[in-house]
């Protein structure tokens, strides 16, 4: 552990130049006293490190010195695909590996490329979740990721709401994890399907391994799955009654693709000018959040679980506005 920390301290100074003991301690997650001891250890090992006093002082390396200790560990190499996604990396338990991998990559880059990398990081940031949306609770994400790495068969208790609401048991072969709009999904076989990780109530690794399907491409499967989900007329849907104003507002609430699907299912207007349609849904809370934005221009007719959820939410809101 200490050897890894010494390497990280050395790479921090190499990549960023002069740093105070307090800043080094914050980066490494240790105390300033530990930093003092680590600096002494590096100096004793022949590293040309020195300190400057004063308000802008700190530790730095002699000009021209560069370490060659830039080899990535297996864990760090495996985390490289998440270097731009600190929150997902932390959720997968790879936060420390990502930070270490970034340091080593920066140290290995020639100065012009390293400077360009820093400029990009200062100017661009990816924030996956949508506005006003809390992160999806994913208590089983780490267990799913571990089984995924090990090609291990798992048994899950999965909460679904369609076609019949309830908790079902599934025996799965984990093939991939996908982060879409701040929500984690597990892609799993044997019959390849997609499961929302937040709906997995329990995940039990079994003492059994499987062989991944030859030629399975996670990115290609996900692209086709999203396209099929957004364009299909079958699947998990809710029956909704919409006013003319509600139909007009659909693009702002559901987006263009889902709106096209809804409009294909519109029935003829009733005596009040309202029309029934089927709306594609992912989960009860997700559906309710969208349909509530239509206010009094939408009435949910089915499934019963969604109707109940909508009613409870609306009554709770009404109590706030007597």
Automatic annotation (TrEMBL):
Entry keyword Transcription regulation: yes
Keyword vocabulary terms for this entry: DNA-binding, Transcription, Transcription regulation
Domain HTH deoR-type, first and last residues per copy: 2-57
Top-rank lineage group of the source organism: Bacteria
Molecular function GO labels: DNA binding; DNA-binding transcription factor activity
Listed transmembrane segments: none
Residues spanning the signal sequence: none
InterPro entries membership: CBASS_pafABC_assoc_protein, DeoR_HTH, HTH_11, WCX_dom, WH-like_DNA-bd_sf, WH_DNA-bd_sf, WYL_dom
Gene3D superfamilies: Winged helix-like DNA-binding domain superfamily/Winged helix DNA-binding domain (1.10.10.10)
Protein name in UniProt: Predicted DNA-binding transcriptional regulator YafY, contains an HTH and WYL domains
